[in-house]
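Please, structure for the following, as tokens.
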Amino acid sequence: MTSPASAPPADILTQPGSKIVFNAPYDDKHTYHIRVTNTGARRIGWAFKTNNMKRFGVDPCNGALDQKESVIVAVSCDAFNFGQEDTSNDRVTIEWTNAPEGAAKVFRREWFQTDGMVRRKNLIIEYNP
């Protein structure tokens, strides 16, 4: 039997499921909202990362979700010169892990630094010129 601390975190559901599309023009900031749902039976901690911190912002960038709970996260893309910057690998990544048994519903970076499993999901960013 697997102990709760070493059990892999359940799946999360993101809406959209695999990509974010930003539409032109890119001379102003754009914001796209993502719903993140914890489909499992345990509280999780989650955190967003991006491969381009100058261009993208995420609010809130981390948090804790109880079982079957959802949160809306805003991903923003700042103005930039489309076609003059490399956008081919742009993405945001959500990582999540089980919260320790009895932990308060407050995100803790330490949850990701224990022996528990951390899962990851990439959302590709596409640009519609």
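The longest strand covers residues 119-128. The two ends are 52 Å apart (CA to CA).
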